Amino acid sequence: MGQGGGLRGLLCPGCGSQLEPLDNGTPEAPRLSCPGCGETYRARRRDSSHELPVTRPSSADPPPLAGSFSLFWRGFALRVLECAFYAGTAGGTALSFAFGGFVPVVRRWLADEVTNWGHVVETFGGVWVVTETRDPDADIGPMLTRVDAPPLFAAVDEVARRLGVKSPGQIRLTYLPCCGVIAWERSRALILGLPLLRVLTHAELRAILAHELAHLARGDATRAARLARFVEGLSQEVERNSERLHGPLGHLARICHLWSARLIGPIARGQEARADRFAAAIAGGSAAASALVKVALVQPLFKEVLEHYDPTEPEAPNLYAFFRSFWYRLPPEIHTAMRLQVLTSPAGTDDPAHPPLPDRLALLQAYPDPVSPNGDGNPATTHLGDLESLEQMLHNRLFAIPAVEPSVFHKAGT
How far apart are the C-alpha atoms of 238 and 300, rounded to whole Å? Predict the structure, then answer.
């Protein structure tokens, strides 16, 4: 940071409050205190010529701070709303069934139209939402072991240690350029998209790991994820049964859907802003901002490559080798033009779960860059062992032809 007033504008990675200087620090290593959570930090001064330009759009409101008082009450209200929905739907269904509603239920049951509790609720004009998950999606991708990628596991362990969270029990490679964390029962898994590892550096991968593990550390993948699944499931059920919703249960479903959608948006944006702050604090503002831009750039690009790729062509390489060669053959001018298009395009700014991309970049660039160790600019694929075999394995799983079932018939004369 710069001299003099350079201490201003630094944000706490925990709560997002502006840090204040303490009197017991030294000019070379000033100490800072957070008035929000009470934590203290030691800053490192740097020449102002190395500072990154920060341009925060004035038209958009800053994302809410996760952990703030307003978001706490929003989360509490959403939990109360969830309980009210289940209690009201269950009670209304039971009363309707007791006062003559069993007749249409029995009729639908005899017609094999009622097989579970949700169908009973639908008979009386309501919907039922199931949010429990016991198993991860089997189509997420193969699970890595430490033998497959020792450096990757070491990087995950290091970031998890700095965040104060236990490392996820599984690391899975997925087919698309996306990352995330999932939780079911007591298991946790980190999801890494193989196409992203081709375009990220070590520092950028560290920023993504910090972002995703911050969700795990703060319970976004467990408690908050259950509320998000409730809101998403309720939205899908109301949309699917919109023409059949009627009566008190139908009105209850519509009201809960309306208010839950209003409550979940600021909560999700606050969680993303908090995860961005942790990523910038651990990997540096420049690496976190660069990783965010690359993810936004590669996702539509890989989708376009997937649409034009023909797996039946005999001489064609596997999908991931094809994308790799395509990415590295793009001229620098095309890379620059695509980055500018991502930064200036209004598409995606209305996502209720994520703050606008310019706002996220402005927040990330406000954080200083740490002293980069050697090799931070190397491709993230060096964290994997046999990369070519992993690419071929994911390609085979993605385009595998179903096995031919053996016939019960035999050739004539056998």
Answer: 30
Q: Is the pLDDT of residue 400 over 90?
A: no
Q: Which residues are 190's β-sheet partners?
A: 171, 181
Classified as helix, coil or strand, 61 is: coil
Q: Which helix H or strand E contains 121, and what residues bound it?
A: helix 117-123
As given in the structure block, the two tokens for residue 356 are 């606008």
Residue of 300, 282, 26, 32 whose CA lies nearest to 176:
300
Q: Give the 3-state secondary structure of residue 219.
A: coil
172 membership: H or E segment, kind and range: strand 170-174
Q: How many CB atoms lie within 10 A of CB 97?
A: 16
Length of the chain: 414
- Helix spans in 241-356 (H): 247-283, 285-308, 319-329, 332-344
Q: Would you say the pTM of this structure is higher than 0.90? A: no
Q: pLDDT tens digits, residue range 175-228?
A: 888 888 887 667 788 999 999 988 899 999 999 999 999 988 877 666 666 777
Q: Distance between CA atoms of 344 and 361, rounded to whole angstroms? A: 12
